[in-house]
Design goal:
By secondary structure, the chain is of the alpha+beta class. It folds into 2 domains: 2-66, no CATH class; 70-97. Helix content is 32%, strand content 24%. It is built from 2 helices and 5 strands; from the N terminus they run βββββαα. A hairpin with a 2-residue loop joins strand 3 and strand 4 (34-39). It is elongated, with a radius of gyration of 26 Å. The model has no long low-confidence stretch (mean pLDDT 76).
């Protein structure tokens, strides 16, 4: 599992990867040298850790989306949004359609 954690003392974010049990005695941190194993509770070596500010992460997310990389639940959300748009369009056509003159039987 990969997640982004807020590193409060550095006022930045770090990307970590935990394999297996969430309570494991170690995890991996994304560094300039790739994924490096870090023992739980040990001090991080910040000169090697890739720290991201919020705007950098926003740019990364935008670029990932451009490449078609989306969160697992994104297609579900996009599908619901598309269905809602179609429903609203149907409602608009029903509510705002211009009345047509219809012939009533027996009248001229």
């Amino acid at each position: 599992m990969v997640r982004v954690e807020n590193s409060v003392d550095m006022m930045a974010y770090k990307v970590v990867r935990v394999r297996g049990d969430k309570r494991a005695d170690s995890y991996e941190v994304l560094t300039g040298k790739g994924w490096q194993t870090q023992k739980t509770g040990e001090q991080l070596v910040f000169d090697e850790t890739m720290l991201w500010d919020y705007s950098d992460l926003q740019e990364l997310v935008t670029e990932l989306k451009k490449q078609g990389i989306k969160p697992k639940d994104a297609s579900y959300t996009e599908g619901k949004l598309e269905a809602t748009k179609e429903h609203l369009q149907d409602m608009r056509s029903l509510v705002f359609k211009k009345p047509t003159k219809s012939k009533v039987r027996g009248s001229r």
